[in-house]
Every structure is written in C-alpha cells, then in structure tokens.
Amino acid sequence: MLGRTVVSTRSLGPVDRCTLDDGREVVVKRGDVAAEAAGLRWLAAARAVRVPEVLGADDTTLVTAAVPSGSASHEAAEEFGRSLAALHAAGAPAFGSPPPDGPADAWIGDAPMRNDPHDGSWLDWYLADRVQPYLRSAVDRGALSQDDVARIESASFDPGPDEPPARLHGDLWSGNVLWSPDGAWVIDPAAHGGHRETDLAMLALFGLPHLETVLAAYDEAAPLADGWRDRVGLHQLFPLLVHATLFGGGYGDAAVAAVR
Fold first, then answer.
1. Residue % of the chain over a pLDDT of 90
2. What are the residues facing 166 on neighbouring strands?
3. What is the DSSP letter of 225?
4. Within-domain flag for 45
5. Organism's domain of life (predicted)?
6. Residue 51 lies in a domain
7. What is the pLDDT of residue 1?
8. For the chain, what is the largest distance between any 2 Cα atoms, rounded to a whole number of angstroms?
C-alpha cells in the first residue's frame, strides 16, 4: 500500500506493528476499517488532539503512523484536557452525524454502530440510537433481563442544558489514550457528533492516569455545565450496554446501576 518493504512485524492483538525499509514504524489494522480511517482524519482536521496520521487506507486495510511509547505526566494530562476541549469545540453537523467522508455503518470496538444525523434533542437521539439498539442486543446476549430493560426505559433522565453537537472521539476509554514523550494521543475512534460529556464519562469508566487533572484543565478551557458529574452515569450507559452486548458478565448490572 505504501510502496515499501516490511522488514519486521510484531503482533499486538488486533493490529500489527511493522518496521518499513525506510525506518518508519507503522501500525496495520485489517477488517472493516473505513469508518475508523474517516474518524481519524476528521479528528485530525480539528488540529486539537494528537491522532496517528493515516498513511494509507482501503476497504480492508488501515495503515497509520505508530505512536512512540512514553508515560503519563501531570503536564501531559493538562495539555490533553485542553486539547480535548478544542476537539469538542470543533463541532459536528448534528447529533449522530458520521465524519464527512465516513460511512453511516461504523463500529465501536467489535459492536456495530449506526450514525444517522438527528435534528432533534441530544437526549432523544441518544436514547433512540445509542441506548435502544444495545438494550435489545444485551437481552439477546443474556446480559439483561426484561425487568432490567423496563427499569432503564422507565428512568427519567436530566440531560442538563442544551449544548451544540460536539466532535467526539466516541470510544474514549483509557486504552485508546496513548502516552508518548510528546504527550497524549488518541487511537481507534468511533467518531460522530454527540455530547461532549460522553467522551469525558468514558474516560472515567475504566480509569485514566491523572484523570482529575485532565478534567480540571478541560473545565478551565471550556467550562462544563453545572451538575455534569451527576450526569456521568447517563453518559456511561451507552458504553456499558455495548460491553454488556459484547462480553455479558456484570456489564448489564453496571448499566442498571448507572441508571440508578
């Protein structure tokens, strides 16, 4: 794809890290990668967070520049918080909109995710397009009972004040934040237009080094609406249902607890 010879390859689970004959380190991912490639380009266009450069992509293969290894620091976390605020402020055409050159049918991890622009409120879109599809699949997986579904569907949610669609990474758990000597990078996006608090809630879901520093720097750069911490459970409901769909186990219980 790049017209170079691969001189060494190291498997890193779903991807390969390869050294090319010109000395460059690249990451190669195979599968249905069109949405991810479009997402990386859309995030890069904001000139805010660091994302690996897309070096080549087709229907089945994505090649990106490799991120050098490093460690988290207080200073890097502050910079990441500010850059994430700038990414979100770059905006999106609508809630649910895909990247401009990306397909509507995308992925979050190994779960399918549909991106259709919505002209109504964020909460209406979120419940219809991000909660309901995964409620059904979590029941099919055996991770939720019909009583659990009834509890979630009957819950009353306060989404906070209206906000414009933000440009989201969309799958911003700690494993998709890489720390390098230059600072934080983000990988493996499920990019779409959504609510900025969703990215922040996902950072908190599985823990992130210096999370409070990231959040404080974000809030200083782009103040969050009052009560945002009370809405974390609402925004975590979507990724928890995705995990319940993929892995079962206690993720269904965690989704019900988030609603409580």
1. 92
2. 194
3. P
4. no
5. Bacteria
6. no
7. 67
8. 59
Q: Write out pLDDT tens, residues 80-129.
A: 999 999 999 999 999 999 999 999 999 999 999 999 999 999 999 999 99
Separation between Cα atoms, residue 147 and residue 132, nearest integer Å: 15
Average pLDDT, the chain: 95
Q: Determine contact, residues 138/252, Cβ cutoff 8 Å.
A: yes
Cα 67 to Cα 52, 54, 107, 142: the distances in Å are: 7, 12, 22, 38
Q: Are strands 54-57 and 61-65 parallel, antiparallel or unpaired?
A: antiparallel
Q: Is 162 exposed, middle or buried (0-12, 13-18, 19+ CB in 10 A)?
A: exposed
Which tokens sit at 36?
């991810």
| Total of domains in the chain | 1
Are 185 and 52 in contact, with CB atoms under 8 Å apart?
yes
Give the global pTM: 0.95
- Rounded Cα distance between 196 and 189, Å, is 14
Domain holding 197: CATH number?
3.90.1200.10
In the numeric block, which tokens belong to residue 200?
């922040």
DSSP-based three-state secondary structure for 109: coil
**In this structure, is residue 4 part of a structural domain?**
no
Interval 5-15: pLDDT, tens: 888 888 888 89
Q: In the numeric block, which tokens belong to residue 103?
A: 């397909």
Of the candidates 141, 91, 102, the one whose C-alpha atom is nearest the C-alpha of residue 243 is 141
Give the range of the structural domain holding residue 116, as residue numbers without chain letter: 67-259
Does 47 score more than 90 pLDDT?
Answer: yes
In a domain, 148, yes or no: yes
The candidate with the shortest Cα–Cα distance to 200, out of 47, 36, 81, is 81
